[in-house]
Amino acid sequence: MRRQRPLAFVETIVSRLREGGVPSEHAYRVSVVENDEVNAFALPGGRIVVWTGLLREAESAEQVAGVLAHELAHVERRHGLRNVAHRAGIALGLRLLVAIFLGGDLDGFTRLAAAVAVLAASNDYNQDQESEADADAVVRMHAAGLDPTALAGFFRVMSREGAGELPGLAQWLSTHPDHQSRIAAIEAPAHALGPVTARPLGVDLDAVKASLGTDGPGDGPR
User: Fold this and answer.
1) Model-level pTM?
2) Tens-place pLDDT, residues 159-173
């Protein structure tokens, strides 16, 4: 079976999603990280992090695009570091941020831990941010020539598989709308936008899965 590098796959999708949109001040960078969690999230400044578990569980490239469109919306709306704490989990988010930005420096880790703890304690992250990002994703997908209901399809996969819930320490941080509510909130405006002028992405999710099944993500964070 043909293989495709996961990072190239994700970068191609992000590039398409940015076409025709409102000009952005962010220079987006993508990381694909080996992790079985079905998750992706945005870091301040335009870095998008995708767990390989998401690529393994998605049923189509357009479902992955729907998730990435959602993450771009978080960046453009400046939902920021607090969003990372809630959506990735404090412990997991800290490890990732240290690995990417601080090079594993322990003093930096301590300072960052204190900062994120304060952000989490304020607890003003709410479902509105997720709903805003979902709505923006619908519009962005439609403009990109992609199925604007694909994100809803991904939530159906998550509901069926029981995926996407935050484990352990991070569980109390979860304030996301439930999957069924999000599906309904995505599909109504998507249908209202009318037919999509479809433009294939030219990527192969099955080839990405074949690569993950043998070599892992291959590209690593960057």
Assistant:
1) 0.74
2) 776 544 433 333 333
